[in-house]
Amino acid sequence: MSAVSSTPTGTTTPATSPTTGSATHAGDAATTNATTAATSGTGGRQRRLHGSPAFVLALSSVVALMVGASAPSPFYPVLQAQLGFSAGTMTTIFGVYAVTLLATLLVTGSLSDHVGRRPVLAGGFVVLAVSMVGFWHADGVATLMASRAVQGVAAGLLMSTMSAAVVDLEPASRPGLAATLNSVTPLFGLAAGALVAGAVLDATPHALPIVFATLTVAYLALAAGVLALPETSPRHEGWRRSLRPQVGIPAAARPAFRRSAPALFAGWATGGLYLSLGAPIVGQLLGGRSHVEQGAVVTVLTGVGALSSYLGRRRSPRQITLYGTTMLAVGTLLTLVALHAESLVAFLLAAMVAGSGFGTSFLGIMRSITPTVGPEQRGELFSSVFVVSYLAFGLPAVAAGFAAPHFGLETTATVYGLAVVVLSAAAALARAFTTRD
């Protein structure tokens, strides 16, 4: 095998192999950051970002994606009233996003490992901008479903690729920073999207075009901006084979992935509970009338999750995950107590406890698995992480959406919450009896 490999842009970078620790990973990052310019497709020279600016742009892309993921949520009750669709239809709209996201992850999750990060990122943000135009001009259920489906495709293209790019571009002087921020920034984006969209809805009757036109422009700008990143995954053969639907976990990552899977499933099942039923619970059962109040549960859960992840970054992956899964169980149980006490304040306080578990359990998982593979397998690994995450997030939430009209919102939330408590407690016990990180 040659000592160097040709990049899609004409530069050469040293061939890499899977890494198993932060020292080798730091070397990878240093090599990546050294690649600061490349020849453009037209034969000219295109200026590339490098070092901290490239890393910040990659992180900003993660935040922007997740802002768009949560921004539509406060609009659904408004659109439901305007367009006259049922709660079951709203659940179907949510389900379409989860299904198309999962399908895209299964097909294209490792594509950027073969064709490069830049083309997948640029294409994904263009598709995401198209979905925002659909929300902006939504005039019926069909338009909403199509927009949500296209958004799911874009998210499936982007999620694993962006997570891999963040690790690729991690500063060599800060090993481990990417794993921390890969858990913090998605939660921060979810919190910001729900909060800002709810505030705009309360402030103006023109919220729909303001929010989604802004996101459309932002995503088109990012589609152009990511082309300035250095290419960290040189093109190589096998991209057609990579499009076969699969969940591929690199061999070096399998032990850590097996240890992390119960916590991963429990954490995102908790997220699904709050993101799918939180706003209806606040609005219908706890007396929250404003859009900010109804979106507050998502903002609190994910905002506290992001803060807790950052504060817990110096703990070992095992300690973080054990704390996180325990808080998931405790916080969800307190949420059910607050629900039956009909206290909005107690409900939000319980969401803070669950949020600390949501964020830290995901941080522990990312810290465990990220150092196990090199750049050429990161897209594949993160794709598998998000497939499990969105199965845990989407399937129970869709089932709850269909159950609520038949059994009542309170009963559905109680059953869902108890299932989450059991899952989280089991994940905590499993981690307690595992000594390895």
Automatic annotation (TrEMBL):
Secreted is among the record's keywords = no
Name of a matching Pfam family: MFS_1
Q: Where is the composition biased (Low complexity)?
A: 1-40
Q: Where is this region: Disordered?
A: 1-48
Q: Which residues form the Major facilitator superfamily (MFS) profile domain?
A: 53-436
User: Can you tell which superkingdom this protein's organism belongs to?
Assistant: Bacteria
Q: Where are the transmembrane segments?
A: 54-71, 83-107, 119-137, 149-167, 179-201, 207-230, 263-283, 295-313, 320-339, 345-369, 381-403, 415-434
Q: Which residues form a coiled coil?
A: none
Question: Does Membrane count among this protein's keywords?
Answer: yes
Predominant subcellular localization, coarse grouping? membrane
Places the protein is found: Cell membrane
Q: Name one GO molecular function term.
A: transmembrane transporter activity
Keyword annotations of the record: Cell membrane, Membrane, Transmembrane, Transmembrane helix, Transport
Tell me the InterPro entries matching this sequence.
MFS, MFS_dom, MFS_trans_sf, MFS_Transporters
Give the GO cellular component terms, alphabetically: plasma membrane
Q: How does it sit in the membrane?
A: Multi-pass membrane protein
Q: What is this protein called?
A: MFS transporter
